[in-house]
Specification:
The protein has about 180 residues and is α/β, with parallel strands linked by helices. It has one domain: Spore Coat Polysaccharide Biosynthesis Protein SpsA, Chain A (Alpha-Beta Complex). The chain has six helices and ten strands; from the N terminus they run E-H-E-H-E-E-H-E-E-E-E-H-H-E-E-H. The protein has a six-stranded mixed β-sheet with strand order 2-1-3-8-5-9. Helix 1 links the parallel strand 1 and strand 2. It is globular.
């Protein structure tokens, strides 16, 4: 069942194609601008119509582990969470994220690049965004979502950068004969 509207950064076509191949995805759109701007977050909320909205906040192309989005949906459904985020892989291996703590005000909290919002919570939070930020919209969104709902962590990596799967090879030295 298609239950997620996805939004990725402009130019991230490999991740967009990977998301389109997922059974749970209703649509994939490119964000009109950077996700740090309030206007971009508001545009996303206006365009989201499925029960869930996924934001991929990084420019790196991703590869998903099997049933990654289904796992996020299951946790969102089972817990009633307003937002679900997950561990991920980086160049050193598993990169676990910290469990969210109610009342946490840190703006450098690592949620990873995949953020799954219950669309109703996203829209409600966006309706309360009354300051236009250039660089703090995701932080503002997270604070507003956390005021009305639970943020849950998936304690298992769900995606990795494609660069880890296919490392860039150095060009071969060629000699002419």
């Amino acid at each position: 069942m298609k239950r997620i509207d996805c939004f990725v950064l402009q130019g991230n076509t490999l991740t967009a194609e990977a998301l389109k191949a997922q059974a749970a995805v209703s649509k994939v759109e490119y964000a009109k601008d950077v996700l740090t701007k309030t206007t971009t977050v508001k545009d996303i909320a206006a365009s989201a119509h499925s029960p869930y909205t996924l934001l991929y906040t990084k420019a790196t192309a991703l590869s998903f582990v099997n049933f990654a989005l289904e796992r996020m949906l299951q946790i969102a459904d089972d817990t009633g969470a307003a937002m679900v985020y997950a561990d991920h892989f980086n160049d050193k291996g598993n990169a676990p994220v910290i469990d969210y703590q109610m009342g946490s005000l840190r703006d450098d909290f690592d949620f990873g690049g995949l953020l799954l919002y219950r669309t109703s919570a996203l829209k409600e939070a966006v309706s309360r965004m009354d300051v236009d930020y250039e660089f703090a919209a995701l932080y503002d969104l997270r604070l507003k979502v956390s005021q009305k709902g639970v943020l849950e962590t998936v304690t298992r990596p769900l995606a990795m950068p494609l660069s880890l799967l296919f490392p860039r090879k150095l060009p071969l030295n060629t000699m002419s004969l």
